[in-house]
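Sample entry copied in:
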Amino acid sequence: MVTSVQDVAAQLGRPITDELEVKQIEAWIAGAEIVIRKRYPNLDQLIADVRIDQKTVDYVEAIAVARYARNPEGATSSSSMIDDYQQSFGTRNAVATIGLLDDEWALLAPSDSGSTGAFTITPTGWRDDARPGSCFGGW
């Protein structure tokens, strides 16, 4: 786990200095890491192979924890009333657990960049712009 309490604080837009809140945020970061590792048990290898960027993992964990910190009960709406004034808010992505949204999972999708190996075959003389049977090259 590389994501820090300061990463979450930056997403929240406020400092986190209270000792109890620091411990809570650290626990939630660990929870976000568990969620990611459930889908990608080989996360360390994917990072080592530069298929997933560590900074992206840190960012996704920080925004998931910040979202949870703003609404840990998973409330879907709230309202307040002062005298004759009433204000209501609705939340579409509220969940009472640390979870990742589809866009966040998309950020974590391993890249296939540089995927060459035993089963990559490039015929001699083949050019990227050539099509088989064309007059520009190929076979």
About this structure: The mean pLDDT is 81.
